[in-house]
User: What shape does this take?
Amino acid sequence: MVLKKNLKKKKQAKIKETTIDDLAIMIGKGFKHVEGRINSLEREQEKTKEEIKEFRRENYLEHEEMKIRFDNVAHRFELVELQKRVGVLEGRAMV
Assistant: This one.
């Protein structure tokens, strides 16, 4: 029994009581860590926003180029149709 009491006293002596100041310091460190992570995420978010803006600009330019190409393709179909009609008219005129 005496031995158990001595062990309990030694364990209690090793355990440091946590004060309110210690808790405040721990919480402060936690907030600093979280603040650092939030700042890092905000920087990443700004980079992502810029990348999205650049992608939109490039996409717009490519879209405009495609519209121009398709406009020209439509004209080609119209030309083919007109050539067929002229061919028919020429054929009838020759007869």
In short: Residues 20-94 form the longest helix (75 residues). Residues 49 and 55 are 10 Å apart (CA to CA). DSSP finds two helices and no strands in the chain. Residues 11-94 form one domain.
